Amino acid sequence: MMKTIATSIEKNYPEVKLIVLLIDERPEEVTDMRRTVKGEVVSSTFDRPSEEHTHVAELVIEKAKRMVEMGQDVVIILDGITRLSRAYNLARQRPVA
Questions:
Q1: For residue 76, what is the domain's CATH number?
Q2: Total number of domains constituting the chain
Q3: What sign has the CA pseudo-torsion 30, 26, 23, 60?
Q4: 42 in the Ramachandran plot: left (φ > 0), alpha (ψ -120 to 50) or beta?
Q5: What is the pLDDT of residue 87?
Q6: For residue 50, which of 23, 37, 70, 87 is within the disulfide window of CB 3.0 to 4.6 Å?
Q7: Residue 94 has what pLDDT?
Q8: What residues contact residue 16 under an 8 Å CB cut-off, 6+ apart?
């Protein structure tokens, strides 16, 4: 489904900058998405800590903001909103050293 949405955006809106954000995914899924989608694929795989998931998501949002400020149209497709929510909860529960 995600690949279909991404390829449809690429086909119908070639001027749009597409970013696919994959959170807590299997490496195989990330590789498959990178091979299929022409847009940028950013990921944090399931073997990475929660803090990395949240950091990667925030970096993508900030990058998209800068692109919009430069006049570009940007679409972010997020796979893993539930997993991202869980990562934010886990990251907040851990004590800061």
A1: 3.40.50.300
A2: 1
A3: negative
A4: beta
A5: 85
A6: 87
A7: 65
A8: 9, 10, 73, 74, 75
Which DSSP state fits 48?
S
- What pTM was computed for the model? 0.84
Sheet strands (E) in the chain: 17-25, 40-45, 74-79
Task: Report the distance separating Cα 70 and Cα 85, nearest Å.
Answer: 29
Task: Find out whether 22 and 56 touch, Cβ atoms under 8 Å.
Answer: no
> Rounded to an integer, what distance in angstroms lies between the CA atom of residue 38 and that of residue 85?
27
Question: For all residues of the chain together, what is the average pLDDT?
Answer: 91
Side chain identity at residue 12, one-letter code: N
d(CA 46, CA 25): 5
pLDDT in tens, 57-97: 999 999 999 999 999 999 999 998 888 888 878 877 766 55
Burial of 55 (0-12, 13-18, 19+ CB in 10 A): middle
Q: Containing domain of residue 56, as a range?
A: 2-93
